[in-house]
Amino acid sequence: MTIPAGKAPILQSVRAAIALWRTAVPRLAPLCAAGGALSVLVQLLAQGGGQAIAAPLALVVLPLIIVFVYTSFLRHALDLPTDFPARARAAVSVAGAMALIGAFLFLVFLVAGMPGANIFLTGAGVDIQSVPEDDVEAAMRVMEQALYANPLLAAIIFGGYAVIWFFLTSRLYIAAPASAAENRVRTFETWAWTKDNMLRITAARLILVVPAFLFFNLLGPRVLMLLASASPVLAIGVQVVIEAAVLAVAWGLEACLSAYLYKGLRPPAR
């Protein structure tokens, strides 16, 4: 299936992404299983006592696992060479693109978050000026007090920022497949490629990708809590399965949807 010029049909994109995913997931299931096992191992090391190096290392290793698996799905969906060197080179480009976009989003919300925080605290009747600048615990207590004082206002403000985040990431949604396909960091030049398609891309993500992430994020912790008290070993095994499933299903669908949109929305090479 192809995307008509200038348009991204929502349901067609969803169906096409599922078709690409069904082709790719049997080939990448072993990689997802290995990634899930490695993720759990890194998390266990980071949670262990006296592991001063493991915890910071986890902040680097865990995203890299996701990036490599995500890039592998992208390469399959784009019908590009999938040998390890090719995937590794593409993963470096994807990681670079995601780092730049992450920095951009951080700066945007750092600036945009100030008025929202002031509205939130003022609406809750909290005096933030009374908190010493270097007292993190006191600041957290004040934020907690404000949250309990006016949860509806907090939901509205945080919901508004979530919508902004979703729209911005939809405009840059095909930066990752562009980077994976072209083996170079592609970020803000892809902004123009998604012009007039932001709402369509957002809708496709809400239908296909968001439910997958919500399912695992809501179900996974609850299952692990139930099993941990009964059998720690069983809980670890189930955690490996859940981590592998998140890579295979949630990140796999994310990659296949963005790859399909990239193929249809990228302007012809000059």
How would you state the average pLDDT, rounded?
A: 85
End-to-end Cα distance: 23 Å
Helix/sheet category: mainly alpha
Number of strands: 0
Overall spatial form: globular
Which stretches are poorly predicted, pLDDT < 50 over at least 5 residues? none
Written as H for each helix and E for each strand, in order along the chain, the element string is HHHHHHHH
Q: What is the makeup of the main sheet?
A: none
In terms of DSSP E residues, the strand content is under 5%
Helix content: over 70%
Number of helical segments? 8
Rg, Cα atoms, Å: 21 Å
Key terms:
270 residues; mainly alpha; 0% strand
Verbal overview:
The protein is an all-alpha fold and 270 residues long. Helices cover 79% and strands 0% of the residues. The protein has 8 helices and no strands. It has helices spanning 10-47, 54-77, 84-123, 136-149, 151-171, 175-182, 198-230, 232-265. Helix 3 (84-123) runs antiparallel to helix 5. The longest helix is centred in the middle third of the chain and has 40 residues, at 84-123. The chain is globular. The mean pLDDT is 85.
SSE map:
Elements: H1 10-47, H2 54-77, H3 84-123, H4 136-149, H5 151-171, H6 175-182, H7 198-230, H8 232-265
Helix pairs in contact: 1-2, 1-7, 1-8, 2-3, 2-8, 3-5, 3-6, 5-7, 6-8, 7-8
